[in-house]
Amino acid sequence: APEDAGALAIYRMLWGGLMAWESYRYLRAGWVHSYYVAPNFLFSYIGFEWLPALPGWGMPAVFVAMIVSGITVSLGLCYRLSSVVFFVTHLYSFLLAASNYLNHAYLIALLSLMMVFLPAHRTLSLDALLWKRRARTTIARWPRMFLLAQLACVYVFGGLAKFNTDWVVYHQPVRQWMKGSAKNVPVFAQEFVASELFTQLVAYGGIFFDLFIAPALLWRRTRPLAVLIAAGFHISNMHLFSIGVFPWLMLAATTLFFEPDWARRLPWLGRYIGIGLDWIARDAEEPPASAKRQTWTMWLLGGWMAIQLTVPLRHHLYPGDVAWNEDGHYCAWRMKLRSKRGSISFRVVDRETGRRWKVDPRDDLSKRQARKLRGKPELIRQYANHLVERYRLEEGREVDVYADAFVGLNYRPTKRFIDPEFELGHEPGSLAPYRWVLPFVWTIPPHPGYTP
Question: Which of 46, 132, 197, 338 could crosslink 323 through cysteines, CB 3.0-4.6 Å?
Answer without folding.
Answer: 338
